[in-house]
Amino acid sequence: RGGARARSGGKMASTAAGKQRIPKVAKVKNKAPAEVQITAEQLLREAKERELELLPPPPQQKITDVEELNDYKLRKRKTFEDNIRKNRTVISNWIKYAQWEESLKEIQRARSIYERALDVDYRNVTLWLKYAEMEMKNRQVNHARNIWDRAITTLPRVNQFWYKYTYMEEMLGNVAGSRQVFERWMEWQPEEQAWHSYINFELRYKEVDRARSIYERYILFSVTLLVLVHPDVKNWIKYARFEEKHSYFAHARKVYERAVEFFGEEHMDEHLYVAFAKFEENQKEFERVRVIYKYALDRIPKQEAQNLFKNYTIFEKKFGDRRGIEDIIVSKRRFQYEEEVKANPHNYDAWFDYLRLVESDAEAETVREVYERAIANVPPIPEKRHWKRYIYLWINYALYEELEAKASKRTRQVYQACLELLPHKKFTFAKMWLLYAQFEIRQKNLPLARRALGTSIGKCPKNKLFKGYIELELQLREFDRCRKLYEKFLEFAPENCTSWIKFAELETILGDIDRARAIYELAIGQPRLDMPEVLWKSYIDFEIEQEEYEKTRNLYRRLLQRTQHVKVWISFAQFELAAGREQRLPRCRQIYEEANRAMRSCEEKEERVMLLESWRSFEDEFGTDATKERIEKLMPEKIKKRRKLQAEDGSDAGWEEYYDYIFPEDTANQPNLKLLAMAKLWKKQQQESEAAAMDPDKDIDESQT
């Protein structure tokens, strides 16, 4: 039997092969990888790009008779049915099919398709909406009602069905039917917006009593259910505002009272009390408003009652007296500041804030008391950095007494107490002395102001004190006192160049040129100066202004004996160019030549280059061809060099490149220059020989020539 079966199987296979030949699988001879590899990413990218290619639109088909139309419908329906058969759960195919039938006015067929789709997925919200919209579009009201009834029965938690259903009934003028739908909806205890939609619906038809009953039911749900549905305060507030809007003020007040009773003291909310107080304020019940605010503020934590406190403040400002307003605003913040200063008495920033608060609202005695408490906290360490914030307490105290309290005697006492407190042997504050002197001047008490500044200079001389005292005497045009003060100042700080210059300028303004020149001579003769270049420049400018050119030249020569700085030489040359009328060019050129000779031994080659560049710019403007050629020969050559670097620990840190200048006048560098020139010549010959080797024909032509 097995052999017979095998033979029969072989015959059947041969007959099948005779009918349809099976292609042979091609054998790959070269299994090496291709030169150009195609990745999966490239394949996906090409597929995505080809999706964007615009396909040509299908040809338009013109239907001329009924048979052709029926044939088109049949083909189209077959396509839709095939798509549905492939995947029944894709609701978009059902909707497209039904909409196509609807476009052909085949309403019955479209209904059938929607019903079949609902059998597949009755939870699809879009399907119900499209079905009902089709019926409404085609004015099939009863069919639409049936669909909405089925939808809200099947899916009662989909609010969109209820909104659409009630809107349709209202648009049809069926107010009773719409109300009936709302009632069915409310039985499901929907969200807050549904209740407000029902209330607004009743208000549109002036049914205030019905709206009130809906609010009552809405609030009743919040109170009676074990699991609170809408326990939010805003629902109660909306109900009360509804009553207030329709002029039922007693009902509104009762709603607020019920809300306060409902939430109790455990779940108090500031928004409820703010709304309640504003309602009573609108009714001109100011005492009731005050009671409500105080009741809430006594029971709600401070950090949770910011808005409540703000509104209470605004109310008191509008309808209360000054004392009530002060108590409200100051009490809370004063308590906070008191806690801060008790925790850290040396927290001067907290004292500043506290004093600013007290100054804005309290009486003068209260402000003075707080200031006295603040200045009593003297810094424990006698270091100036610890006193910088503390001293401003005294300054603010004195300014308050002078400007706000108008008490000049107390102001003077404050300044004197502060100056007695300062440890002048260790440090002082020039600002306090100057403020005190300016205060006495405002009080037209010049002797006390001078006495205060004189005492400050005697106890603790400082540059700022001298400058302030001198400025005061200058404003008073007491020039003899200014001279004495400058003398004291220069005895105290002889290295201060600014003081010397100001003193000389004062004498210049007064027309005493000899005294000014003598002051400058004393100044430049000092062994130690903080800014000598500024002093010399001022002295030179002074002589130039007096047109004493010989003295100016002597000053430049004296300065060059002390320093050979390149800027001094350049300034000297420019002076000769600008000052001398005759022989100015030779003088200027001579200065440049002297500077060049003097700076040959200078290690800073950049300064010498700066001098030569200034000289060259001078020759470019005023020189001849010979002088220009000469200065060009003096210009250095810029070369690049390398030098070895060492780290801080002495190890090698590599090499760095830098630029150096080689001056033709330096005889010490002549061997190096000759070596460099020979190296350049050798390099040029090497390049010519390499070029000749690369081009032999050129050599033959040159030999023939």
UniProtKB/TrEMBL annotation:
A cellular-component GO term for this protein: precatalytic spliceosome
Subcellular localization: Nucleus speckle
GO terms for biological process, alphabetical: spliceosomal complex assembly
TM region(s), chain numbering: none
Name of the gene: Crnkl1
Keyword Iron-sulfur recorded: no
Protein name in UniProt: Crooked neck-like protein 1
Pfam family name, one: HAT_Syf1_CNRKL1_C
Family: Belongs to the crooked-neck family.
Domain of life: Eukaryota
Location of region: Disordered: 1-28, 686-705
Keyword tags: mRNA processing, mRNA splicing, Nucleus, Phosphoprotein, Repeat, Spliceosome
Boundaries of every Pre-mRNA-splicing factor Syf1/CRNKL1-like C-terminal HAT-repeats domain copy: 92-379, 404-557
Biological role stated in the UniProt entry: Involved in pre-mRNA splicing process. As a component of the minor spliceosome, involved in the splicing of U12-type introns in pre-mRNAs.
